[in-house]
Amino acid sequence: MEKFKELWLMYRYQIIVGATVLFGGLLLLGYHAIKPASAPETPSFSSAAGSSLATSVSTAGSSQSARVCVDVKGAVQKPGVYTFKRGARVQEAIRAAGGTLPNAAMKDVNLAKELADQQIIYIPAVGEQVATPETGGPANNDTTAGKAPVNLNTATKEQLCQITGIGDKKADLILEYRQQHGQFKTVDELTQVSGFGEKTVAKIKEQVAV
């Protein structure tokens, strides 16, 4: 016991310093052992993705605006909806629809007119009554040779209601007359339908056909 005391007195400072260093080392080791691993840094793709998306949308918009879609109707071989590059002409639309029928009335059709998106290209037949197109302004883009008339023999109720002065009731009367008497022979035959006098028929005569 005396010997231990002597050793302690001789080396107490070294023992204290050594114990302190050992204790500190154990604390540091324990800290690193329980410290949660930091999450790996995730590269940011938001800027690149946003730029790519914007470029894609811009390209799609430019491609769409560079084309026009028109509806070709009337005396053509293949009526339907056709798409063309912007700047195309009526002549190209008629050619895409297979050309005109032998009875097509081409006198007032402007083949050089530039196509507009959502335009109706209507080619009338010889002798067909066609409403006179409005002059000037964007309204003229709706048709080529005039606004397409409503055919009394094939029109639905919704189409008949598009005629000026004709509502649901009068449209039903036209459909009822057509079921009972067959197809209209002339536009003037409308006077035989209840509610349609000569003055009424005269007002809508240019908007209908048979």
Calculate Rg over CA atoms: 43 Å
Low-pLDDT ranges: 132-146
Strand order of the largest sheet: 2-1-3
Query: What's the β-strand tally?
Result: 5
Helix coverage percent = 40-55%
Account of the protein in words:
The chain is α/β, with parallel strands linked by helices and 210 residues long. Helices cover 40% and strands 11% of the residues. The chain has 6 helices and 5 strands. Strands 2-1-3 form a 3-stranded mixed sheet. Strand 1 (67-74) and strand 2 form a beta hairpin. It is rod-shaped and about 140 Å long. The relative contact order is 0.08.
Question: Short summary of the structure?
Answer:
This protein is α/β, with parallel strands linked by helices and 210 residues long. Helices cover 40% and strands 11% of the residues. The strands form two sheets. It has a three-stranded mixed beta sheet with strand order 2-1-3. A two-stranded parallel sheet has the order 4-5.
Question: What is the fold's blueprint, element by element?
Answer:
Blueprint: H1 2-34, H2 46-65, E1 67-74, E2 80-85, H3 90-96, E3 119-123, E4 150-151, H4 157-160, H5 168-181, H6 198-204, E5 208-209
Parallel strand pairs: 1-3, 4-5
Antiparallel strand pairs: 1-2
Keywords, please?
210 residues; alpha/beta; three-stranded mixed sheet; two-stranded parallel ribbon; 5 strands; rod-shaped
